[in-house]
């Protein structure tokens, strides 16, 4: 399967520690060619399992129980 390269910004390290909803808004405003998926913590407090596929127009935003971004949002 061929990956899709989307023009524009591809990672947002400055959003770690910020509110997940605000992070999603920032990502879309800085790169309107992507869509954002918020990944909540699992019921056990660990990171929710996600598929391993690469999607060049998707940005996953992992958040904690307080909706705070826990890792660098990156295209993939």
UniProtKB/TrEMBL annotation:
Pfam families per UniProt: potato_inhibit (PF00280)
SUPFAM superfamilies: CI-2 family of serine protease inhibitors (SSF54654)
Gene Ontology molecular-function annotations: serine-type endopeptidase inhibitor activity
GO-annotated biological processes: response to wounding
Alphabetical list of Gene3D superfamilies matching this protein: Trypsin Inhibitor V, subunit A (3.30.10.10)
Source organism superkingdom: Eukaryota
Entry keyword Cell membrane: no
Xref: InterPro entries: Prot_inh_pot1, Prot_inh_pot1_sf
PROSITE patterns: POTATO_INHIBITOR
Keyword Zinc-finger: no
UniProtKB keywords: Protease inhibitor, Serine protease inhibitor
Family designation: Belongs to the protease inhibitor I13 (potato type I serine protease inhibitor) family.
Designated name of the protein: Uncharacterized protein
Taxonomic source organism: Punica granatum
